[in-house]
Design goal:
With 207 residues, the chain is α+β, with helices and mostly antiparallel strands. The chain is built from four helices and eight strands; from the N terminus they run αββββααββββα. It is 29% helix and 30% strand. Strand 3 (80-87) and strand 4 (92-100) form a beta hairpin. The longest helix is centred in the first third of the chain and has 23 residues, at 3-25.
């Protein structure tokens, strides 16, 4: 075969191979871009503390131990957990958890599961430890995205230590967020109105 014929054939094969590679490596038409990670609350969006400013920690992978005994990963599918912790100079702390599920239906089920755990937390605490009295309160739902609910939990030990927590569960699409605020005190010390605002902000801010 003449050299110029061989050269033309090789050039044609090279062009064909490059074209094939372009087809194989090109993104599929209509492929969805990777979803953005949900955003978190900032320190200024927590219920104001009367004497100390809030400090926000970094956003961290994993499930936060600071959610305590009310909410856990037990019996839940392996999802993407991220959290951020907040603190003041006094004995007041907060944490936000975000969970990205596979579908909106999974997120709806997970939000209900977490709310059920919070709703029954007081009874479970008393059964686990006879030295602790616990009471839960329902502060109602919030009309934000796919909805949110706020609850309160008060515990008192037999030696007189008392703690008050506010917890909320909200959902936006296939993402669930849980927010917890806590300090020493009773229900009268809980900033329910401000915490509802914080929860609304947390859900709205996810995306």
């Amino acid at each position: 075969m003449p050299k110029h014929v061989r050269a033309s054939a090789l050039a044609a094969l090279t062009v064909a191979a490059l074209a094939a590679g372009t087809v194989l490596t090109a993104p599929a038409a209509g492929a969805a871009p990777k979803a953005a990670a949900p955003k978190f609350l900032s320190a200024s969006e927590l219920p104001p503390h009367p004497t100390s400013a809030w400090t926000a920690g970094p956003v961290t992978e994993g499930f936060p131990e600071s959610l305590g005994s009310c909410v856990s990963t037990e019996g839940v599918l392996s999802y993407t957990y991220r959290h951020r912790e907040f603190r003041t100079e006094l004995e007041t702390g907060a944490v936000q958890l975000t969970v990205v599920t596979g579908t909106a239906a999974q997120a709806k089920a997970l939000a209900k599961h977490y709310d059920d755990l919070i709703r029954t937390c007081a009874d479970r605490i008393e059964k686990a430890d006879p030295d602790i009295e616990a009471e839960g309160r329902d502060y109602g739902t919030l009309p934000v995205e796919e909805g949110a609910r706020v609850r309160g939990l008060h515990t008192e030990t037999s030696w007189g230590a008392t703690d008050i927590s506010l917890l909320s569960v909200g959902r936006d699409g296939r993402t669930v967020t849980v927010v917890k605020w806590g300090q020493m005190g009773d229900f009268e010390d809980a900033p329910v109105g401000a915490f509802k605002k914080t929860t609304t902000t947390a859900v709205n801010k996810l995306y």
